[in-house]
Amino acid sequence: VVEAATRVRDQGVGRMLLASLEDFTRWAAEQRSAIGRMAADDGTVTIMFSDIEGSTALNASLGDSRWVRVLAAHDELVETYVEKYRGLIVKTQGDGHMVVFSTPQLALCAALDIQRAFGAKWNHSRELRRTPIRVRIGLHTGTAIERDGDYLGQNVALAARVAAEADGGEVLVTGEIAEACADDFTFVAAG
Fold it and tell me: How far apart (Å, rounded) are the C-alpha atoms in residues 188 and 39?
């Protein structure tokens, strides 16, 4: 607040707003280029969707203020592993995340570590120890269209559908992910 007041006094409102718009434009350009860097030359990315199982009912039972704290702890945990495996959160909506990774292996490692962290009582924040949650995750790899800081296309929709089929605590992947990671992971057919 003090910094903003000083800027208004020194620069005037018009110059401060212009500086803020320039900062926002620079941030948007950096974010857009970061999203573009996630894809291979052919446009291939690995897409991960995650969300909390039964989140609407959980929100209703906890109440909004406690739900917001649980959600913040969830977000922090997911973001930790996305960053560790060099992913990029494209967008969040409520308790869901859409994330892209440059390789299927990085995405799968992130997804498995996220599930392990939610399953390990000692690794959670106080909020998650008090209110255990189960996250479902789906992964798919393929080409996608990048537009205005977002990814679109059939492969994005497929990744979202795979996540919707998962149960809490599960990571479901498509055949493309299983094939790409077959040397490092063992997969069980889920139907």
Answer: 28
138 within 8 A of 172, measured Cβ to Cβ: yes
Identify residue 115 by its one-letter amino acid code.
Q
Q: In angstroms, rounded to a whole number, what is the distance separating the alpha carbons of residues 52 and 149?
A: 24
What is the rounded (10 degree) CA torsion for 114, 99, 39, 185? Answer: 30
Q: Taking each helix axis from N to C terminus, what angle separates 55-62 and 64-84, rounded to the nearest 10 degrees?
A: 140
Q: Which residues contact residue 179 at a Cβ distance below 8 angstroms, ignoring those fewer than 6 apart?
A: none
The count of other CB atoms within 10 Å of the CB of residue 149 is 15
pTM to 2 decimals?
A: 0.80
**E strand or H helix at 97:** strand 96-101
Our CA dihedral for 94, 100, 101, 106, rounded to 10 degrees, sits at 30
pLDDT per position as a tens digit, 16-71:
444 555 654 454 445 445 556 777 777 789 999 999 999 999 999 999 999 999 99
| Amino acid, single-letter form, for residue 176 | E
